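#help-structures

NK: newbie question. if I give both the sequence and a SMILES, will the prediction place the ligand too? trying with zinc ion
OV: yes, paste both and it writes out the complex. here, I ran yours:
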Amino acid sequence: MVHVTELTCTSCGRSYRPDPDRYVCDDCGPVGTLDVRYDLEAVGAELDPDRLARDPDRTIWRYGPLLPAPRGSTGLAVGGTPLYEATGLLSGLAALWIKDEALEPTGSLKDRASAVVVAQAQTFGRRVVATASTGNAAAALAGVAAATPGIEAVIFVPADAPEAKVAQLLAYGARVVLVEGTYDDAYELCAEVAPRRGWYNRNTGFNPYTTEGKKTVALEIAEQLSWRAPDVVVVSVGDGSIIGGIHKGFAEAHALGWIDRIPRLLGVQAAGSAYLVEAFERDEDVATKPPIDPHTVADSISAGLPRDRVKAMRAVRETGGAFLAVDDGEILAAIPRVAATTGVLPEPAAAAAFAGLEAAIGRGLVADSDRVVVVSTGSGLKDVGAVMEATRRTGIVPLRVPPDPDAFTAAFDGGPA
Ligand SMILES: *Cc1c(COP(=O)(O)O)cnc(C)c1O
Ligand SMILES: [Zn+2]
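OV: that's the protein plus ligand as structure tokens.
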């Protein structure tokens, strides 16, 4: 059963019916992103920790009563990613876990949002779903569409998106539009073209249902910790949709009485794309703060105007968290460090969260007694060039030898590495 009651504007509170063409608030425009509201009493009557414990379905659809649409014909197994203990990565914390979203079907957390949006498109009777993306949301939509009979994906990505992400799109059979410009340019183009063609628009921070998919990562984290919520969750932030979704997931679990507190949320941005960090530190109004010119190696969190900035700022402020920035050098350095100590290989945007945790500890934002979860949002295989650059910078170099045992011995046992 679907228990959505209404959509409410994050900026003015106005209420809307969940109609197919309803994306943002009429009065507030693009900053009037919408919250999907549920009859939580009805949800609680259908779903609780005991029933979840007996449910063999490991996908996001186990939280069905808290989702806006039934699963539909979406075939991919989205969700159910591991939560690894990672005390080896950083000592001194009461507990540290990594939620590894590289294990999603297309290799990033974005699968959660795309699966829900495609299911929503099916209930709205839409056949074509379009999105702009820095790459991962595109791959996710393309992958989910490929696994959903009757749904086609049209994708707008910046022409300089990492090759692995574009390769995914092409292989999944999406219509791919390489936009000669930034992510922000691709976003505006998608927003203009989609309604003229009757396409359903999945754009982040515009479509209200992406948050509903992303919140499932918080529900999973809480469930995997036996409903003992962590003290802190660290996640990287571009548009701010993931952190907003994580907030909503924990807030709903809290309202349902499944957890006794909502974790502090730490949003990590790249220093070259730090719109929300600036707004947070200077107490600026994100409704009026103009875009910045973003530059970072972490393409997935490069956003001049974070589209879900209202939800993101609310997530951090209401949980007593913080936004903080890490530079590209710190981001790249975190990749081999995390990979070599945990076996989890993060793409640059995901690595930013680990670098951010270290910075947060340095600034006293995380205490020794805290139980901490870092969300590793996407796979390092998404950006092999960045991983190679990261290892090169740390001086990790392979041995190169001719196919000869003596040459191997000389090189391996003592030659200059
Ligand atoms: C999209 C993405 C992010 C940031 O999510 P936002 O919702 O844009 O803040 C972080 N890491 C990865 C790997 C992503 O794909
Ligand atoms: Zn409004």
